[in-house]
Design a protein that fits this description.
Blueprint (H helix, E strand, L loop, with lengths): L7 E2 L3 H8 L2 E4 L3 E7 L7 E5 L7 H22 L4 E7 L2 H4 L2 H27 L1
Helix pairs in contact: 2-4
EC number: 3.1.26.5
Keywords: Endonuclease, Hydrolase, Nuclease, RNA-binding, tRNA processing
Organism: Phreatobacter aquaticus
């Protein structure tokens, strides 16, 4: 079994805010926000969990589960030159892990399709 390196992380508040103005894709356990950067660097991921979703232990567990889902499956589906923010909700705790991975890759693909449609509309 090969050990995959963790994907790059968003850490600056300005990047999170810029991503919140991008495309949104809803899922059962999270909302995916995507923003295209002006470079072709590796995709970056950020995680947001509000205090109303639970205590610190639960919020950290949600973050760890999604971070691992990104590492295992979604980092390959992500487009270079994109920033992604996952706004987690309470369902991220109870959802089966394999389902989280499928939801995440599906959300990334839907965000890419939305980007392609908007580019096609603006060019015609």
């Amino acid at each position: 079994m090969t050990c995959q390196s963790p994907p790059l992380r968003l850490v600056r508040r300005a990047d999170f805010i810029a991503c919140s103005r991008g495309r949104r894709v809803n899922s059962a356990a999270f909302v995916l926000q995507e923003r295209r950067r002006d470079d072709s660097g590796a995709p970056r991921f950020g995680f947001t969990v509000t205090k109303k979703t639970g205590g610190a232990v639960e919020r950290n567990r949600m973050r760890r589960r999604l971070r691992e889902a990104v590492r295992l499956g979604a980092a390959d589906a992500a487009r270079p030159g994109s920033d992604y923010v996952l706004v987690l909700n309470r369902a991220a705790l109870d959802r089966p892990f394999e389902t989280l991975i499928v939801d995440l890759t599906d959300a990334i693909r839907r965000a890419a399709k939305a980007q392609e449609r908007s580019v096609a509309r603006s060019s015609s």
